[in-house]
Amino acid sequence: MFNKETKTALQAKEAALWLAFAPIAFQATRALRDMGILTAVSKSGSKGITIEEIMEQTNMNRYAVRVLLEAGLGMELVIVNDKKYTLTKTGYFILHDELTRINMDFTQDICYKGMYHLEESLKEGKPAGLKELGPWDTIYPGLSLLPPSVGKSWFDFDHYYSDLATPAALDIVFENKPKKLLDIGGNTGKWALACTAKDPEVEVTIFDLPGQAGLAQKTMKDAGVENRVHFHIANILDTSIPFPKGFDAIWMSQFLDCFSEAEIESILSRCREALNDDGTVYILEPFWNRQQFKSAAFCLQQTSLYFTAMANGNSQMYHTDDFFQCIENAGLKIVEENNQMGLNYTLLKCKKA
């Protein structure tokens, strides 16, 4: 997918110029979407709509409507005939596609300002852009403290992809009916709750930071399963705090990409010790080199830079070559790999080597 040149010289220069103005194009696209212009154009259907009609529907002045529409022409979000604007296919997806909306809101609310500090982050190995959101060393302690609209953008992004993989993953994890399951990075408790619904006998332990664990504790109590869901509240990077032990299964969904390779090896080594002899570690991750579509790989490659500048400064969405080496170094072996989970996820089933 990424092993040969695909553009002519003219196409390559055009792509380079698009990238040169990409931040401006992004903000113009957001304005067209959020200020109601694309909605007005969409509602007009194939007959199209004039600037005057858009002004009336959006309560915007002529100048504002005109400059945004002209930018939209260049970005191929709209086309114009006889001074009437209609929506293109790209404009349709910007306006109506949930995945595109979630990615755009995440980029705007979580990443945009912080990306100004990307070079600093790369040089220092720290998320230098995080100061645009809050005074934390990593983003994770601050997730429960973000303004509601900003927090929503993060959790929508975090959950959308993994949620699509949950039903099939549950079937695989519960094939052998684990009695005790450790959910590392349990977040809001959605997976733990799904496990208690899947098997009325399973006991789940959520391992997470205090802020996220607090959200999950409320979720479990509201669902009436607090007697079967326990909590191990700690920073997983604090190696002085031992993992709880005696688990038939350990679950990590879109979790290990939040850590450097050395940290992943440390976490997996401790997972190995927390397992029963025949226990299984299940790892659900999106690997950029396992994607069917180039656009999906592109999204994951760019998301890596969110980790660089905003999240922790040292992790990424991994290539399998690098990730699988971490698993081997931790004394585990992959016994099964399923690349058909949800939209773009891989489920790895690992045992003690």
TrEMBL record:
Domain of life per record: Bacteria
An individual GO BP term: methylation
InterPro entries in the cross-refs: BVU_1015-like_N (IPR049480), COMT-like (IPR016461), COMT_C (IPR001077), SAM-dependent_MTases_sf (IPR029063), WH-like_DNA-bd_sf (IPR036388), WH_DNA-bd_sf (IPR036390)
Residue stretches making up the O-methyltransferase C-terminal domain: 179-331
Domain named BVU-1015-like N-terminal dimerisation-like: residues: 16-85
GO MF annotations, alphabetized: O-methyltransferase activity
SUPFAM superfamilies: S-adenosyl-L-methionine-dependent methyltransferases, Winged helix' DNA-binding domain
UniProt keyword annotation of Aminoacyl-tRNA synthetase present: no
Key words, A-Z: Methyltransferase, S-adenosyl-L-methionine, Transferase
CDD domains for this protein: AdoMet_MTases (cd02440)
The protein, known as: O-methyltransferase
Highest classification ranks of the organism: Bacteria, Pseudomonadati, Bacteroidota, Chitinophagia, Chitinophagales
